[in-house]
Amino acid sequence: MKRLVLFILIAVLIICSTSCRAVYPIMGTSVAITVNQGNAAPHINAALKRMREIEKLLSRFDEKSEVSRLNRGERFALSSDTINCLRLAEKAKMLTSGAFDVSYSGKLNLDGIGKGYAVEEARRVLFKRGVKSAIIDIGSSIAVLGGPYKLGIKHPRKKGVILDVFAAGGLDAVSTSGDYEQGHHIIDPRTKKPALLCQSVTVVADDAGLADGLSTGIFVLGPKKGLALVKKLNLRVLIVSADGKIIRNNI
């Protein structure tokens, strides 16, 4: 379940000696890391290094990654990152009653949660280094420090139109799943058929990895069951149903 580039950053950031924004290719897409303080480059480099470590472990396109080795049936000691990401995926599967499942195709595919996991780990690096204000944006997953920042959600059917703008701050993480960049590519693992009940789902949570998995799971569940789960978990969510209806919870 390849994730999509669904966010645009609305906040105006001052690019000067007290702020630095850098964009790097990673995980089949690109990540923009912004640190709003002096001497930002070492912090950005540390966050990027952490994300690249995770990419080497989780990429199914790298034959040397742990995911690829698992899919070949090799026996070896897993890294703590792969274990933690798999546990997070299992949590998302449990919470969504199987609507999110990284093994539904018969082999492991962590595309739907790995980017969020990497974003969350990059944020941990920045937090431990004392960074107070930052944004890590990999397109479908965003994690912030400080703020608040204004983030916009693209309209799933009107190119170039912003559907909604909301505030994210503190330790918020945001993830969106949608059907409009690559068509109906999100599969319901329970039926092995495309999920057709939503156009897009945006989730705001406190962990980017979990938000990543939940946005896909809620997309599969659809507005009715998805909203019931959202209320149970007390999440901030915006759902666009297949017929274009906007459903909100605390957003």
Quick structural summary:
This protein is α+β, with helices and mostly antiparallel strands and 251 residues long. It has six helices and twelve strands. The longest helix is centred in the first third of the chain and has 18 residues.
Q: How does this structure look, described?
A:
The protein is of the alpha+beta class. The protein has one domain: T-fold. The chain contains six helices and twelve strands. The strands form two sheets. Strands 1, 2, 3, 4, 5, 6, 7, 10, 11 and 12 form a ten-stranded antiparallel sheet that branches. A hairpin with a 4-residue loop joins β8 and β9. The longest helix is centred in the N-terminal third of the chain and has 18 residues. It is globular and about 50 Å long. The N terminus is likely disordered.
β-strand amount: 25-35%
Query: What general form does the structure show?
Result: globular
Helix content: 25-40%
What structural class do the secondary elements suggest?
Answer: alpha+beta
- In the CATH hierarchy, what is the superfamily? ApbE-like domains
Would you tell me the overall average pLDDT?
92
Distance from N terminus to C terminus (CA atoms, Å) equals: 25 Å
Let me know the largest β-sheet: 10 strands, antiparallel
